[in-house]
Amino acid sequence: MATPRVSSKRLWIAVIALVLVVIVAVAAYSMTPKAPEKRGGTLVISLGTDIPIFDPQKSTGMQNLGIIRLVCETLTDMDPKTGEVKPNLAESWESTPDATTWTVHLRKGIKFHDGTTFTAEAVKVSIMDRLLNPQAKSPARGSFSMIKSMDIKDDYTVVFHTTGYAPLMALFNYAPSEIISPTQYKKLGDDFYKQPIGTGPYKFVEHVKGDHVKLVANPEYWNGAPELDTIIMKPIPEAGARVMALESGSSHVITNVPPADYFRLKADARFYAIQALSQRSMHVSLNTKWGPLKDVKVRQALNYAVDKKAIVDRIFKGTAGIMDCPGIPPSAFGYSKIGVYEYDPAKAKQLLAQAGYPNGFEVELMYGAGRFLMDTEVVEAVQSYLSAVGLKVKITPLEWAAFQAAEAKPVNETKVQMAFVGFGLPTLDADQALENFRSDSWPPLGLEPMFYQNARFQALDDKGRSITDLAQRKVIYHDATQILFDEAPWIFLYYEPQLHLARAEAKNVLMRHDETIWLFGAYMEKKS
Amino acid sequence: MIGFLIRRILAIIPILLGVSLIVFVMLRMIPGDPAALMAGEDARPEVLQSLREQWGLNEPLPNQYLVFLRNMFQGDLGKSIRSGRPAIEEIGDRYLNTVLLATLSLVMALSVGLFAGIISGTRPYSLFDNASMLVALFGVSTPAFWLGLMLMWLFAVELAWFPAVGAGGIQSLILPSITLGAVVAATIARQTRSSVLEVMRQDYVRTARSKGVPENTVIMKHVLKNAMIPVVTLAGVLFGTMLGGSIIVETVFAYPGLGKLLIDSISSRDYPVVQALIMTYALVFAIINLAVDLSYTYLDPRIRYE
Amino acid sequence: MGESVQTIQTVHIRQIGEASLIFHRFKRNKLGVAGTVALTLFILLALLAPYVAPKDPLAADLSNNLTPPSEGYPLGRDELGRDILSRIIYGARISLTVGLISVGIAALIGVPLGAASGYRGGWVDSLVMRSMDVLLSFPSILLAIVVVAALGPGLTNAMIAIGVALVPVYARLTRGMVLYVKELDFVEAARMVGARGSRILFRHIMPNCLAPIIVQSTLNIASAILSAAALGFLGLGAQPPTPEWGVMLSKGRTYLRVAPHVSIFPGIAIMLTVLAFNLVGDGIRDALDPRMV
User: Tens of pLDDT along A277-330?
Assistant: First the structure.
């Protein structure tokens, strides 16, 4: 018996229908928004120095603090693109018109990595007990000294009493005020750095000194689970090795890239440049209480002796700006173009002779090798310029932690004569820059060893920080910086360019103006 | 035989004592308060005080040395200033990396060096001999840090075959091992060649040949065993060179071994770790030399009865 | 790093008259002669540096740094704009100084120690040899690093450190030679005639020990130069702005890609110098040992 034959017409219709169904199905499928895949991955970032100690109130170095920030957060944040102050652990705030009393409302429902709740107690422990308490010896204490006291109104409200400080909430973005878990602090005390606990998007795993820091994602982060699974920070002090690590892929992000490599790699599609605003003033601090440096003529001579233009052109390939306002970069409030000591070795020698040093003198120049971009190159260039006018300069490179310790010694114990270092401005406000020159910021209270004091300058600075009228403040800062320019407690050099690179597959890595590597939205793109 | 063994092992002890004396003196020679040197410039006074008690720094020098020895035998060589962990732990974390590097380098050096040396020795003045000895000559003259830089540049950067820095598994061992092994290979090649030549000239080799023993057997049985004797002695010295060289190679490649730890600790003035490392190197070196001596005795029975 | 290690253990000088024979054998070794020529060049450059170097090795000109070989700067300019050729020439002077002084220190301390040890025997011998064993319990670069760590970085301290590390070589060598020579007939004869110990030592034994010491020294100078460069490279030896080859190499690292000449030329200088010493050392050793045809 013959099988019933399907007519060919029907067959064709069936096939076409099937094909149409398939096409529609495929189209529908590809147009439905898919649930975003978790992107995950491990990001390796290499800085030039190791974190001295994983404790926000005890460490310095803004890039270092940026890593600690991933574990312990601050009350406020600054938007990485606009620099505007944004709420973080602090939800909102008000102040009295004279900026002396600030009421801060804390965000509710945030847990530390150890499960305890974030409350006002944590703010007290972190800021009052560990940062401002003189016994705690925090290196950043001087920067927060305008806070006189704090009251806890309730679990989620605190009140700060200050000497009248307008940019206080901007200051709370500055890393040493990061909030730590009071429970953990009670458990470990000063050993906190061994197992630090905060509220951040990443949890601390380990810190093998000199080798790496490992962080893992905190899936319960109050602002949403982070994209990356693991972050590893590997310090590579030598710039060439750091660049090679980026190129070979063993590091995904590197900071402080030598200009020549920066331009070359920027043009390579495998990498991209992380833009960041320059706000760090690089200079040589002169101990104004030591030997020949007591004489202002000598200090001015040293400024005439160094060719800043050559340094900026040849060492930084034009990416740096010559410092023309003592301590204040063009990106900050309070900047005005004061002037530059033009390169004039003849004048330098003349001034030295007038001051009684026709044959120069011996001096030691210290610096924390590896911390700043091209620091060794700049230091050696400075040495060669000063030698050309008769000085005998001994260069002493120190590890950052040791350099920090050397700079922190008080005036009667300090061995620092000259120190090459940079001062960054996380608040982008002149006040923070000028605090170094105040007589109440001499180490160990402050970070810089000039031991400078000038009553006229200080009076101006006092006024500048207490009034809120911006136009008036600008005039005051102009006059104050003019005094600094004339007195030359620094050899004024340049503003550090922020040259950082990332591999193309490490997406969304940003650098905030305060040199925090902003990894909050970063993720690794998986190769398809 | 056993007596000889025991005597040799015991002989290490006075040497290590001598080394500990050097280390002890070295720390006292550095200007500054020894307690501050061991604890770091910014240590709290209580920490300094407890260190002084622990190391007897308030007592006269000879007593201090005895305290130092006592602490050392208990495994306490001080705490790293940088990390706060016991110096012994810092070493424990890294010694395996250096051992791996040294072993791989030695394997490479021996295989290349012995091969080249034997072929050159058995075919003197041939093209191979002249070429390989020329290469070897350059090899012993090349500074390892320069070679390392050139290799790093060529392979890690231009070709991206290997990672430039760090310890990421077997690949990051390759370039440092080649660098470290190269100079050693050159020295081994030269020495092997000359000792093979020396042995080949001996009467008993001629006798074996004239008896009709096949050339290969001649080489394997008679020549090699005897030619290895000076090479083995050399190996002991070479191991020392390699230990020293590893310090530099590790620094060039940022390879996290003992050598890099030493240089990092010296620049950061982490004296407890420096101290501990010196003792470690001395101990390791002494043990290796002992092993070399013993194998020397095994290879050449004549020496056993000295 | 890299000691061109050839401890002369089996050299025996038979008679003084052999000297001219040795010299002739040496002359026939082409590589050895080439090495000698190179070595002479090196020494001349070092001695005559101020007259031969075209520019001041310390004269910096940052505005024109890192230029490749060009008019007036045959080897280019370094990271601070200094003339690399002049720095290499002055570097030869520094290397030669380091080599001679380190080896000088080692010989000055090691030879008398070894002679006393070998001649006297007894407890002097034991004490000296045990101390040498302690020093030898370190690889020499490590010992140098340790000494510099204690004394502080700098060229002078580096020279002391390298010298100290080489002392055992000389002590052992001298002791071995003295032990051998003191059993020889002519020494016996001198003793029988009533000559005093020290006289025997100086007039009869030591002159016969000189040759191996000299040969050893050529090789040790090479290793001292390498060690000094290594220390300079590590930042523990000569300090900037001193034009020491190791330091120059280290500084050039940062510019390896854009201006490799800054590192390449000092590296070649080190290599050629050490090569020259090795060739001469090889040549002398081969000339002394007639069995090496």
Answer: 778 899 999 999 999 999 999 999 999 999 999 999 989 988 889 999 999 998
How high does pLDDT run on average in chain A?
85
| Yes or no, beta carbons of C4 and B140 under 8 Å apart | yes
Residue of B42, B156, B168 lying closest to A244 (CB–CB)? B156
Domains of chain B, by residue range, sit at 2-73, 91-299
* Closest residue of chain A to C240, computed from CA coordinates: A380
- With CB atoms and an 8 Å threshold, state whether A399 touches B267: yes
- For the purposes of burial, counting CB atoms within 10 Å of the CB of A194, is it exposed (0-12), middle (13-18) or buried (19 or more)? middle
What's the gap in Å between the CA of A393 and the closest CA on chain C? Answer: 10
Residues 191-230 of B with CB under 8 A from A: none
CATH of the domain at C186: 1.10.3720.10
User: Contacts of residue A377 in chain C, CB cutoff 8 Å?
Assistant: 79, 254
In-domain check, residue C232: yes
Tell whether B51 is within 8 A of chain C (Cβ).
no
Amino acid in position A165? Y
Range of the domain at C121: 2-288
Chains with 3 or more CB pairs closer than 8 angstroms to B?
A, C
pLDDT of A1 strictly over 60: no
Question: Cβ of B110 under 8 Å from any chain A Cβ?
Answer: no
The reported pLDDT for the residue numbered C4 is 35
User: Which residues of chain C are within 8 Å of residue B250 when distances are taken between CB atoms?
Assistant: none
Instruction: Convert the pLDDT of each residue in A468-523 to its tens digit.
Output: 777 888 899 999 999 999 999 999 999 988 889 999 988 888 887 777 788 877 88
> A274 by DSSP, 3-state: which?
strand
**How high is the ipTM of this complex?**
0.80
Distances (CA, A) of A522 to A33, A39, A76, A225, A506: 22, 10, 20, 12, 7
Output the CA–CA distances (angstroms, integers) from residue B128 to A213, A258, B135, B187, B218, in the order listed. 51, 45, 11, 17, 21
Task: In whole angstroms, give the CA distance from residue B253 to residue B162.
Answer: 11
- How far is CA B194 from its chain centroid? 24
Per CB-CB distance under 8 Å, the chain A contacts of B254 are 236, 238, 241
Three-class secondary structure of residue B86 per DSSP: strand
Average pLDDT along chain C? 82
- Number of folded domains that form chain C: 1
Chain B CB within 8 Å of residue A154 CB: no
| C74 touches A: beta carbon within 8 Å | no
Question: Which residue of C66, C78, C82, C254 to mutate against A (max A Cβ within 10 Å)?
Answer: C254
Higher pLDDT among residues B191 and B227, named by residue: B191
CATH superfamily of B91-299: MetI-like (1.10.3720.10)
Chain C neighbours among B 153-182 (CB < 8 Å)?
A: 153, 157
CB contact under 8 A, C2 and B144: yes
Which residue in B has a C-alpha nearest to residue A247's C-alpha? B157
pLDDT band with cut points at 50, 70 and 90 for residue B218: low
For residue B52, the one-letter residue type is: R
Give the predicted TM-score (pTM) of the model. Answer: 0.77
Judge whether C293 lies within some domain.
no
Span A224-266, pLDDT tens digits: 888 888 999 988 877 777 887 888 788 999 988 888 888 889 8
- Band (pLDDT 50/70/90 cuts) for residue B205 is low
Q: Residue-wise over C59-95: b if at least 16 C-beta within 10 A, else e? A: ebbbeebbbeeeeebebbbbbbbbbbbbbbbbbbbbb
Q: Is the pLDDT of residue B253 over 90?
A: no
